[in-house]
Design brief:
This protein is an alpha+beta fold. The chain is built from 19 helices and 21 strands. Strand 2 and strand 3 form a beta hairpin. Helix 1 crosses helix 5 and helix 11 packs across helix 16. The chain is elongated and about 115 Å long. The two termini are about 65 Å apart. The structure holds adenosine-5'-diphosphate (ADP) and magnesium ion. Magnesium ion (MG) binds next to helix 2.
């Protein structure tokens, strides 16, 4: 340990530390997110200062964060070239809680599980480092002071001393994390890379991981590579030449060198003005967001929301529906990624979008932590509801825009028609709105039709929207019921999706026009007054036949009637008003088997 002045942590800090340690022991990995965020904040500060004082950047204009592993010492260092901290800053910032609100929040914490989870997701700050560290040393150099060291083992005190090594950092802060016995995973640079990609890939400043690499070079080339490297490395240094015993000057030698690999080359395009972003940029960002290399979007909406919560968002409709879309519905759907100021917070919240919209891929970046340590749960839920409302509204805007071009919209319906129908079943509040965007096959043409278009073509006096269910359009077209309606000039919707019938039951009507299954016996066409008389006559005439059919099919049917619904087919089986239609029976049978 360093020799220096000893300080006690403020009581609130000790309290916060124990809460952090107790609530986050399952996800210690977030320490990296917190430390990189602090580095990024410090870089923001110095950049901002340099706007009015260009000299502030001094001899260290390179703004970046570098992570390095020292395996033998079991230390990970995170170094930034940010604003740095003076001795006083170290004492204040890493020993007290400056933020108003946090203390009050701590007061209200009752050890409630929900509060704990909440803290875990949002900025928990510097002290999370003690999830993985048994000792931490912060070395910092601010323009206004010499370089100082802050060191602590987290118990209740910390030490500050002037760095005997001098002002080696130039400017900025280095956090040296001495890992606990059981936290060796963070010595693995692949693991660190994975975490940077997960939490910090959209940080505005470059984040590097320093890696030790080896390569084989010809002896003649060795000298040259000290100055100018042969591959794309910027900072390669020949540290040592192995094979030194080999006296053969012409044999290749293996050299070890260090190289900083850039971890975050993806740019957070959502923070830019949509007018400056090209279609290609939107297309290329999609696979990054969806973590699906090579995938492309069908459509997107890029917007900024103000009000209760200020956030930016890009919402994508994938070109193809996820294969497991409907299996996934029961579980979580990680389709909304929440960031706060470019830092990833969570993608496992089901609160942002209803299940039927789980095919969307959305990034939400809030300017202010909508859920913050200093706020309460109720307010957080309000923020989430407000974000959710905005997202749903924007989805409908996008749908409207997509549906302007019916040809293109057909591609959307092919992939997501069933999702919309699920929306009718599950989202009572939006059911009527969704119904406008559903498309069906119909006898009108081979193209899809909307219910609105069907209604606009209804015959004079027609009161119902006629539909028939079956397993395919071809099967439906064969139906004698359909044939009869078509012969009379009515349009029939062809329903061949298993959920169709339930959806229509839910809707009951569209613009006040009730749905009518043409397979039901109470079918009213609106023109039947015509010959009630002749109907009676016919019934008398065919009475012997009716009696005979009834006697023959006694166990299978309910009633036999003379009907005018058929044109060329001699007879048809109809479902009674209260009975199941053939399609419904198929559905129930399928469920019984499953
Ligand atoms: P927050 O970042 O929300 O303020 P933290 O606990 O993460 O809370 O950090 C506490 C304070 O310590 C920061 O506000 C900042 O003043 C200071 N700090 C932490 N890390 C750094 C750093 N790398 N460079 C400069 N200042 C830092
Ligand atoms: Mg912080």
């Amino acid at each position: 340990p360093i020799q220096g002045e000893k300080y006690q942590f403020q009581t609130e800090v000790s309290r916060l530390m124990s809460i952090v340690i107790n609530s986050l022991y399952k996800t210690p990995e977030i320490f990296l997110r917190e430390l990189i965020s602090n580095g990024s904040d410090a870089l923001d500060k110095i950049r901002f200062r340099s706007l009015t004082d260009p000299a502030a950047l001094g001899s260290n204009p390179d703004l970046k964060v570098t992570i390095a592993v020292h395996k033998d010492q079991r230390i990970v260092t995170i170094t930034d070239t940010g604003v740095g901290m003076t001795k006083e800053d170290l004492q204040k910032n890493l020993g007290t809680i400056a933020k108003s609100g946090t203390s009050e929040f701590l007061e209200t914490m009752s050890g409630d599980k929900a509060d704990m989870d909440l803290i875990g997701k949002f900025g928990v700050g510097f002290y999370s480092v003690f999830l993985v560290a048994d000792k931490v040393r912060v070395t910092s150099k601010n323009n206004d002071d010499d370089q100082y060291i802050w060191e602590s083992t987290a118990v209740d005190d910390f030490t500050i001393a002037k760095d005997p090594a001098g002002n080696t950092l130039g400017r900025g802060t280095q956090i040296a994390i001495h890992l606990k016995e059981d936290q060796d995973q963070y010595l693995d640079d692949k693991r660190l890379q994975q975490l940077v990609t997960k939490y910090s890939e959209f940080i505005n400043f470059p984040i590097y991981i320093r890696r030790t690499k080896t390569k084989t070079v010809e002896p003649e080339a060795t000298k040259e590579s000290e100055n100018k490297d042969s591959d794309d490395s910027e900072e390669a240094v020949v540290e040592e030449a192995k094979d030194e015993e080999s006296k053969d000057k012409s044999a290749p030698v293996t050299v070890t060198y260090e190289e900083d690999d850039l971890m975050n080359s993806n740019k957070p395009i959502w923070i830019r003005d949509p007018k400056t972003i090209t279609q290609t940029e939107y297309d290329e960002f999609y696979p990054v967001l969806a973590r699906e290399p090579g995938a492309s979007p069908m459509a997107y909406s890029h917007f900024r929301a103000e009000g209760e919560v200020e956030f930016r968002s890009i919402m994508y409709v994938p070109k193809e529906a996820p294969k497991d879309l409907f299996q996934r519905l029961d579980n979580t759907h990680a389709n909304v990624k929440l960031y706060v100021k470019r830092v990833f917070i969570t993608d496992d919240s089901k609160e942002f979008l209803p299940r039927w919209l789980s095919f969307l891929k959305v990034v939400v970046d809030a300017e202010d932590a909508p859920l913050n340590v200093s706020r309460e749960t109720v307010q957080s839920n309000k923020s989430i509801k407000s974000i959710s409302k905005h997202l749903i509204k924007k989805f409908f805007d996008l749908l409207k825009q997509l549906s302007q071009d019916e040809k293109k919209y057909a591609a959307f319906i092919k992939e997501y028609g069933t999702s919309l129908k699920l929306g009718v079943l599950e989202d009572g509040a939006n059911m009527r709105k969704i119904a406008r965007f559903i498309r069906y096959h119909s006898s009108h043409s081979d193209d899809y039709t909307s219910l609105e278009a069907y209604v606009s073509r209804m015959k004079k006096g027609q009161k119902h929207i006629f539909f028939f269910t079956g397993s395919s359009v071809d099967e439906i077209k064969q139906s004698p019921f359909v044939e009869s309606l078509l012969a009379r000039g009515y349009e029939v919707l062809y329903m061949h999706d298993t959920v169709d019938e339930i959806v229509l039951t839910h809707l009951a009507n569209f613009e006040g026009k009730p749905f009518q299954n043409v397979a039901k016996s109470d079918l009213k066409l609106g023109d039947e007054e015509e010959n009630k008389e002749s109907e009676k006559e016919l019934e008398e005439k065919f009475l012997p036949l009716l009696d005979w059919i009834k006697a023959t099919l006694l166990n299978d049917i309910d009633k036999v009637r003379v009907s005018k619904r058929l044109t060329t087919s001699p007879a048809a089986l109809v479902a009674s008003d209260f009975g199941w239609t053939a399609n419904m029976e198929r559905l129930m049978e399928g469920q019984a088997k499953a």
